[in-house]
Amino acid sequence: MTQTAPVADQAPSGKPSFCDSDGPSQEAIAAFYDGMKPFWHPVLSEADLPEHKIVRVELLGIGIALARLNGQVVALRDLCRHFQARLSLGEVIDLDGLQHVMCPYHGWSYGSDGHCKRIPQLLEGRKIPPNARVDSYKVAIRYGLIWVCLDDEPKFDIPDYPEWGDDTFRTVVMKEEQPSKTSSIRMIMGTLDDTHFPWVHQGILGSRDEPAAPDHKVWREGQYLVLQYDVEQPPNLATTDMSAEGADKVEKIALRYTDYVGMPNVIRLVKDSDAGRYVVWLATCPSAYNRTTNFWAFSRNYDMNPGRDSIYEEFSAHVRSQDKPVIESQRPWLLPPFWTQIELPLGPADKPLMEFQRWLEELGIVSGI
């Protein structure tokens, strides 16, 4: 089920320019949306969708109305087929024993399959037109999130997060109140990029006195791009058990990073040390080409005191606040293909990013400017 978006929901066009005021070309935006379409994307925390409520989210420039109908989360195009009012402004009603989404404008009501089941103004004896329907999308619930795929056949499964729900780990969820003003693929690249640690996270994840890149090993494994390397970092909540006696007296912590990019929109950073394992998990929602909704979680199998969870959340938020302005400053909005030579990645330090971009181009997600 692939249909052209109505004009009301299309992203704005722009000239192929790299100034802050101008966006990418309409062709580049359309190519990005088409490339990202056949994947699962997280759109909302499951806890943020109450019973009998309709919540609007955006995915790839398309407005989607989420609701719980008859015990299932459904995702409908947030435009009534009648005069294209937003269904998310309506309400959940009971109709013939089943729940439906009712448009607030004229009361047209839609079932979970997107077909209109009631038109109050319809004359007696007339049937509801077969094209009185809105797009409905595939929905899945995992890791406390609602995931939507705009294609009938997702290219990959939802990436794994084995620490979620594992009782041997403490998991902290960090909620960002506002979307990031960047593309989702730049968010993933920024999280995958370890050579920025000494500069953006001085004293936390690295030191400017030791800026040399680690020896990266990069390979593909099913739907994952995998990166592994060994490094030493200062002691902190993300590298060791800071509740242990003398932890703050240690100069450096030896770590092995193993990063899994669930192509193209999820990344799981696994950090193993003598203290145990610390995991950074990021799932991105490309709300639009220049606006990304991020879902973060952090898991650890040391310092298991639940009373210290807030300290870990504050630490994670601080590290994130250091990255945010830098990533939001990057232009062009969309990742430029290698052939443009707009950006100048350097091997071997940037090998992980180069391999990520190479796979994005194969998937058709990076195709123009």
TrEMBL record:
<keyword id="KW-0411">Iron-sulfur</keyword>
<dbReference type="GO" id="GO:0008168">
    <property type="term" value="F:methyltransferase activity"/>
</dbReference>
<dbReference type="InterPro" id="IPR017941">
    <property type="entry name" value="Rieske_2Fe-2S"/>
</dbReference>
<protein>
    <submittedName>
        <fullName>Vanillate O-demethylase monooxygenase subunit</fullName>
        <ecNumber>1.14.13.82</ecNumber>
    </submittedName>
</protein>
<keyword id="KW-0001">2Fe-2S</keyword>
<keyword id="KW-0808">Transferase</keyword>
<dbReference type="GO" id="GO:0032259">
    <property type="term" value="P:methylation"/>
</dbReference>
<dbReference type="InterPro" id="IPR050584">
    <property type="entry name" value="Cholesterol_7-desaturase"/>
</dbReference>
<dbReference type="GO" id="GO:0051537">
    <property type="term" value="F:2 iron, 2 sulfur cluster binding"/>
</dbReference>
<dbReference type="InterPro" id="IPR036922">
    <property type="entry name" value="Rieske_2Fe-2S_sf"/>
</dbReference>
<keyword id="KW-0489">Methyltransferase</keyword>
<dbReference type="Pfam" id="PF00355">
    <property type="entry name" value="Rieske"/>
</dbReference>
<dbReference type="InterPro" id="IPR044043">
    <property type="entry name" value="VanA_C_cat"/>
</dbReference>
<keyword id="KW-0560">Oxidoreductase</keyword>
<dbReference type="GO" id="GO:0046872">
    <property type="term" value="F:metal ion binding"/>
</dbReference>
<feature type="region of interest" description="Disordered">
    <location>
        <begin position="1"/>
        <end position="21"/>
    </location>
</feature>
<dbReference type="Pfam" id="PF19112">
    <property type="entry name" value="VanA_C"/>
</dbReference>
<keyword id="KW-0503">Monooxygenase</keyword>
<keyword id="KW-0408">Iron</keyword>
<dbReference type="GO" id="GO:0018489">
    <property type="term" value="F:vanillate monooxygenase activity"/>
</dbReference>
<feature type="domain" description="Rieske">
    <location>
        <begin position="40"/>
        <end position="148"/>
    </location>
</feature>
<keyword id="KW-0479">Metal-binding</keyword>
